[in-house]
Amino acid sequence: DQSLKPQIAAPHLAVNNPTLTTVALEKPFCMFDNSLGPNKSYVVYLYAMKESASAISFLVTDNSSKPLNSTFQKTSGGQLGPYKAALFKVPDCASPPRLADVGDVNKVSDVLKQYLFRVGDDVTCLYDPNFLAVCNPPLAPDTTYRFKYVLVDSTEGIMKDQTLWSDPIKTRRVKLPLRIDTWPGRRSGGMIVITSILSVLMFLLLAGLLASVSSAVMRSEDPSAGTKHMSQTIQQSEPRPQLSSE
């Protein structure tokens, strides 16, 4: 089907997608079945490029139908043209992963790896001098990209089939610190004022209670008050001497 194109992953399979620097795509299950020949070995290339580079008009093969080996660095992150972001085996259309297993904690990670591919998921390949595989570095925030799957005959090294470019997919925008809502529940200004007043009143109430308790404790522990009380009691209880009649 010449109308097939890469699709962004369903929300229940990839939450928060796209992110600032990644896009999760569904792998091309059953897209290239009619192009697969017997006794042949195939792989799938994933190309990415920025929408601003007029992606639809750019080819991903040379004049001899060989897929381009353009890299993220050579294309300025997809600004100058498509770059190869991934290489993986052709998904098995006969036995796809069971999406029902996504609910199983022990199986969810394996199912998602088989069913999805996350573009921009490698944060180290650009800076690792020993990295030899296809580099899939983070995408740019607040930027629109398009993607294309290409079926390649591994033996001959030529393209056998390809999808259309995907619809535009835009990564998320970075929020400015001043615009980040730090209040839980998005409280209004009136609620903030009321909360502040109640907090002050509660503080004054606690301060008064602590002062009263402290005063009572200090009175109970004052030794002079006890001595004075005892001396008055003793004076009252001592018998007064009687005057002689003489």
From TrEMBL:
InterPro entries: Uroplakin-2, Uroplakin-3. The chain crosses the membrane at residues 189-213. Residues 221-246 are annotated as: Disordered. Keywords: Membrane, Transmembrane, Transmembrane helix. GO terms for biological process: urea transport; water transport. It comes from the Eukaryota. Residues 229-246 have a biased composition (Polar residues). Pfam families: Uroplakin_II. GO terms for cellular component: plasma membrane. The keyword Translocase does not apply. The keyword Membrane applies. This is UPK3A protein. It comes from Corythaixoides concolor. The lineage of its organism: Eukaryota, Metazoa, Chordata, Craniata, Vertebrata. The gene is Upk3a.
